Amino acid sequence: MSTSGWALLCLTCALLGFVLPRRRGDFPCHPAGWQDEATFATLHVAAMAAPSLRAGLSRESAGEAVRHLRTLLGTGAVALTGADGLLAWDGALECHTGQAAEHARTALASGRPQVVTGESLTCGRPDCPIRGAVIAPLEVDGRVIGALAAYDAEVSAALVRTVTEVGRWVSGQLELAELDSSRRRAVEAEMRALRAQISPHFVYNSLTTIASFVRTDPERARELLVDFADFTRYALRRARDFTTLADELHCVDRYLLLERARFGDRLRFTVRVAPEALAVPVPFLCLQPLVENAIKHGLVHNGGSGEVRVLIEDAGPEAHISVEDDGLGMDPAHARTLLDDELRQGRGEGGIGLANVDLRLRQIYGEDYGLVVETALGSGTRVRLRVPKARPGNSSL
């Protein structure tokens, strides 16, 4: 069971033992079934708080989550603090908001739950019903980044257990948020690397080819400049993570026109696309690096001539894509090297196109969606991938 799943199970058990029995009368149901209603209510409120916490610990996310956490705990007030002070408060007893950061300081320093009673809770209001507080630290990857504080009229052992378990569950959600953020940063770094390798690898040859037409065929040179500008505008834009297959194919078309100007009739290519697949969302720049790799291995390593074929098929809930060349092929062990970034770096090999696309596909869709390379010496190379038609919920288009 995952950390967050285990924490949620512990949370449910703690709440059923502490909060919900105090509110048995809140459920207009048969006495024998009130526990089922209580379990559902607990899990429902936890689900309401989770999306905010999965955004990380900030004033905005804490403000959205804190009222749900107070519902879970059933206390007079609840506060969420960060390392630098109070982030959010829920409850009518705001006379203690100025003390919340001070109350959390010991929990932040020790990394252990703390109980506060007595004079340290005095707020100057003689009618204030708050007589105690339980503060649980919030940890992410072994670091204490904040605290959850529950204020109520009394502090019992059950309240301490409940706040501790809720704090662990909140920590689990914040850790998942950190993992999501790390994954996004990794993908963004790979995108920057991909763009960096496109520029030196492709720009020089394209401009040299265009320059060769300036005197002999100025109109052709102008058209190629427009194609080059169109390609670079797409490849170097501030793109979102996703685009459509139609846009990717337009980028590939511009790229092939420029390469055709360079290689002439020695480069032959065919593109066959099922119309139903054109609107399928795909990771930005997932297709052009595969075509570039096919040209590199199909033409440059095959005496400067060859054919590249792009096939996109509609396959029910997925789109299946293959890019193949009729070049010399390669040892399958070398193909594995191209997909393994560490091996490639260790051997000093350039180019990160295939490894980049493979990594992003597996990060976005799961380990079953990486590239499949079919090749053998003397048999050409085919690179296959498949993408679901429904884009992941955390992506944008």
UniProtKB/TrEMBL annotation:
<dbReference type="InterPro" id="IPR036890">
    <property type="entry name" value="HATPase_C_sf"/>
</dbReference>
<dbReference type="InterPro" id="IPR050640">
    <property type="entry name" value="Bact_2-comp_sensor_kinase"/>
</dbReference>
<dbReference type="GO" id="GO:0000155">
    <property type="term" value="F:phosphorelay sensor kinase activity"/>
</dbReference>
<dbReference type="InterPro" id="IPR003018">
    <property type="entry name" value="GAF"/>
</dbReference>
<dbReference type="Pfam" id="PF02518">
    <property type="entry name" value="HATPase_c"/>
</dbReference>
<dbReference type="Pfam" id="PF01590">
    <property type="entry name" value="GAF"/>
</dbReference>
<keyword id="KW-0808">Transferase</keyword>
<keyword id="KW-0418">Kinase</keyword>
<feature type="domain" description="Histidine kinase/HSP90-like ATPase">
    <location>
        <begin position="279"/>
        <end position="391"/>
    </location>
</feature>
<protein>
    <submittedName>
        <fullName>Signal transduction histidine kinase</fullName>
    </submittedName>
</protein>
<dbReference type="Pfam" id="PF06580">
    <property type="entry name" value="His_kinase"/>
</dbReference>
<dbReference type="InterPro" id="IPR003594">
    <property type="entry name" value="HATPase_dom"/>
</dbReference>
<dbReference type="InterPro" id="IPR010559">
    <property type="entry name" value="Sig_transdc_His_kin_internal"/>
</dbReference>
<dbReference type="GO" id="GO:0016020">
    <property type="term" value="C:membrane"/>
</dbReference>
